[in-house]
Request: fold
Amino acid sequence: MNLSDMLGYADIQQLSRIASVYQCECNGHSKNDLIQSILSTVSRKDVFEAQISSMKLDEMRFLNSLLFESRDSFSLEELIARVQQSKFGELEPPAEEPPQKKTKRTKKKQAEAEAPKESGPREMISRFKHQGWLFNGVTGTNRYMFQVPQDLRVRFRETLRKKFTAELHYTDEPHMYRDEQMLVQEDVYQLLHYIYHNEVQLSADGSMYKRFSGQILEKLAISEELPGKGEWRFGYGRHFHHYPNRMSLLFDYCSYMKYFVEDSLLLVLSPSGEERLRSKPANEMEQIYKFWLKLYKGAIPNIHALVHWMNSLAEQWVTADSLRKVLIPFVKPFYYDSADRVLDVRLMGMMVHLGMLRIGEHQEHGTVVRMTKLGRALVAGVNLEDQDGMFLY
Reply:
């Protein structure tokens, strides 16, 4: 539903709070006057942009987590979790309050004054409700759910896109760039082909011995080095601590699809794996992309929103440095991975490996990136079937 629809369902108390936030001048006892005044004020560009400019960083992160969801409704527990995820550990400076004059108080008033004020996730959710950005109600399943008006989502995305774009540095096409479109599908085949034609032995922890891993890496289109001994690697897949980044994704994907099975410490293709050798599924790139999002979401909770911003902001060649400055406030470090490493290696690096992002070196501006047609189709959710050849130029 849009804002006008949700305002129509809101009670007069909530409408009065929203009107107060936007300093609407209207008859506070008339629901119709309140709705019309709120809609008129919120529709003004200067008012909307001022509200966004006044948001704190954690509020912006919380809002960002809601903008690209396909779902319309969120439970209170989900919203609280998202608010908590939006706090990256920064310390807010304490608000300075003028000294209070000592006055006589009754015990009741003293207790009320000393009672802790509403704070934390619920306070932020309440602020969003008072601004008309969140509305709540009971669904048919008797669940207490919250919604963001659909037209406000669109306005938020467009306003933030313009704000971010103004800080970016766009360039012409670099002389050389890397494009890995469709290579990941070819290497799924190469991985399964090697397992089919070789007796691949597994160690006690379920990983391939380095001899087999090294031979597979030699057959893959993209060269990678095996992880160093004692290197801390976790959070990005079941076999991430055994294999390098891209190979780990390939291995985990094939395992998820049940293309092979472990049989007496041997890796053996399953019937579905042998079928994949004969022909690739028409929607395989969508499957790999969605699997990557699911696999990395534990370490990067807002990966879905970050990918959407990459898609929106990198329609043309843009410097990686300027893109990093815009997006880094929304990237949370993950243990030994700094925010820069999460963005550069886990997000942009893997988007290059998935064929979603081109990366090049510009003579004047350094590293530059641009979304591919394949990447834009995947993010937009376009069915790639019958789109053969459109992504190769």
